[in-house]
Amino acid sequence: MRRYVISIFVLVLMAVGITAALFYVKDTTDRLYTIAASAMQAAKNEEYEETKEYLLQLKEAWKQREAMFTLFVRHDHIDLLTDSLAKLAVYVEHRNFEEVEVQLGTMMYQLKNVWESELPTFTNVF
After folding, report:
1. What is the rounded CA–CA span in Å between residue 107 and residue 122?
2. Helix%, strand%, coil% for the chain, nearest 5
3. What's the whole-model pTM score?
4. DSSP letter string over 18-79?
5. CA–CA separation, 39 vs 95, rounded Å?
6. Using CA atoms, how far apart are residues 35 and 31, in angstroms rounded to an integer?
7. Cβ neighbours of residue 42 under 8 Å, at least 6 residues apart?
8. pLDDT for 18-58, tens place per residue?
9. What is the CA 120 to chain-centroid distance, rounded?
C-alpha cells in the first residue's frame, strides 16, 4: 500500500512539474514574440532608435530567461534563437532594415516552433 501511495504522489508531482514547465515556456515565448513583433513594426518604419531599443529589450528578456529556458527546451532551438539575436545586433547597427525584418521573422517563427515542439502529443502508434 505504501508503494502505491508513493507512486501516485510521484505521478502527480511529475504532472505538476510538466505543466509548470509548459506554462513557463509559453510565457517566455509570448514575451519574446511580443517584443519581436514591436521591433518588426519599428524596422518596417525604418526607425533606427526605436528598433535598437526593442533589440535591447529583446536581449535583456532573453538574458533573464535563457538559463531556465535551457532546462525545458532542446538546445538546437536555443542556438537558433541566440544566433538570430547576434545577427540582429549587427543588422541594426548597420541600419540594414531589410535584414532586420528577415531575422525578426525567422526569430518569430522559431519562437512559435519552440512552443509547438514542447506541447505533448497523443497519437496512435499502431
Report:
1. 27
2. 85, 0, 15
3. 0.83
4. HHHHHHHHHHHHHHHHHHHHHHHHHHHTT-HHHHHHHHHHHHHHHHHHHHHHHHHS-HHHHH
5. 13
6. 6
7. 50, 51, 54
8. 889 889 989 999 999 999 999 999 988 888 889 899 999 99
9. 17
